[in-house]
TrEMBL record:
Record protein name field: ABC transporter ATP-binding protein
Species assigned in the record: Hwanghaeella grinnelliae
Record bears the keyword Membrane: yes
Alphabetical list of CDD domains matching this protein: ABC_Carb_Solutes_like
Family: Belongs to the ABC transporter superfamily.
Length: 362
């Protein structure tokens, strides 16, 4: 097991990258603590797989270093790094039995047969495959094959980190929840470092203690699920996480005060640090009806379980609110209030005042 440090990592698939957009990974600096449960979350194409392949050694970065504890492993092969990786699609040997598939990573490393047998049976129990141990993998469903891939990733006890790259993509929806909670449980049991890559916020937030959010080749925030919800460092995080996401409302800043359509809005952070494009970020959960407030018009109301999503127009912008089922929607003359502690100013996308020179606050 090891602490993993990514030091000024950058990667471009081009020979001579020039523009910012030529880099699949811009500068990435992250330390993954030994034993942590992490999710790497971001939209398609943001660089998640590139980052994972650099950690596992399948890809050599154009810039920067990968350290396991204090050892520079940037030039080492995947095999030398002692990493287990579970991919999006099953990697199983069809002609082998389930048992042989699970035993393969151990036999390959010369683990004795008694230890292998014990470990294979433990993992088979965990993935609910004990009854299929003697069957050929060929006859399994896609779900079954992916369970075997998961099992093969979990079977070794000598790995530094287990990495899952969208491992539940081919899994039937009803099984997804079950496997996700099992992985979480397994992490709590074995305390091994796990990195779980996904573009699905539910998967990330349920699995991880810490979530690394990426966008366009950059890490925009590393935090607990609560941090990401309550204190988004970037409008991307606010918008990407939550359902519906945070309202991001272009505004003006004058003399350290924030205005939306001519109305002054109180914000929780320091508006004096403004500059660049200015936006107010407020989650739909923190907007309510008020006697005095911003004039708005209700456009649409939709049911969302025990809540309602109310879409309004306010200061010529679309603004969503999430209200409890029982809350009455005023017939007309609607006024809105924002909860100040959860209303923030963002400049050029970043939380105003959160970044000093050198990108602190990410
Ligand atoms: N082998 C490659 N050659 C050239 N460009 C690549 C290659 N692999 C990825 N890219 C580009 O690098 C960027 C990051 O891709 P990457 O696959 O790491 O993103 P991702 O977040 O894992 O996406 P997804 O969720 O769709 O797998 C994208 O613009 C992608 O087109």
């Amino acid at each position: 097991m090891a602490r993993i440090t990514l030091d000024k990592l950058g990667h471009s698939y081009m020979e001579n990258p020039v523009a910012d957009a030529d880099w699949a990974l811009k500068q990435v600096d992250i330390t993954w603590d030994d034993g942590g449960a992490y999710a790497l979350l971001g939209p398609s194409g943001c660089g998640k797989t590139t980052l994972l392949n650099i950690i596992s050694g399948l890809l050599r970065p154009s810039q920067g270093r990968v350290l396991f504890d204090d050892d520079d492993v940037t030039a080492l092969s995947p095999d030398q790094r002692h990493i287990a990786q579970v991919f999006q699609f099953p990697v199983v040997y069809d002609t082998m039995t389930v048992y042989e598939n699970l035993a393969f990573p151990l036999r390959n490393r010369g683990v004795d047969s008694a230890t292998t047998d014990k470990r294979v049976r433990e993992i088979a129990e965990f993935i609910d495959m004990t009854h299929r141990l003697d069957d050929r993998a060929k006859g399994l469903t896609a779900d079954g094959k992916q369970k075997i891939s998961l099992g093969r990733g979990l079977v070794r006890t000598d790995v530094n980190v287990i990495m899952f790259d969208e491992p539940l993509t081919v899994i039937d929806p009803h099984l997804k929840w079950e496997l996700r909670s099992k992985l979480k449980e397994l992490h709590q049991r074995v305390g091994r470092t796990m990195i779980y890559v996904t573009h699905d916020q539910t998967e990330a937030l349920t699995f991880a203690d810490k979530v690394v959010v990426m966008n366009e080749g950059e890490v925009v925030q590393i935090g607990t699920p609560v941090d990401l919800f309550e204190r988004p460092q970037h409008t991307f995080v606010g918008h990407f996480i939550g359902s519906p996401g945070m309202n991001v409302l272009p505004c003006t800043v004058d003399g350290g005060k924030v205005y939306l359509g001519g109305n002054q809005i109180a914000v929780a952070n320091d508006a004096a640090q403004g500059g660049g494009t200015a936006e107010i970020g407020v989650r739909p959960e923190f907007v309510s009806f008020a006697d005095n407030g911003l004039p708005a018009t209700v456009v649409k109301v939709s049911d969302a379980g025990r809540h309602k999503i109310v879409e309004t127009r306010c200061a010529d912008q679309t603004l969503r609110m999430l209200i409890s089922e029982g809350v009455e929607i005023p017939a007309d003359g609607v006024k809105l209030a924002f909860d100040t502690a959860n209303t923030r100013l963002y400049t050029d996308g970043w939380l105003a005042g959160s970044r000093s020179a050198g990108g602190e606050g990410r």
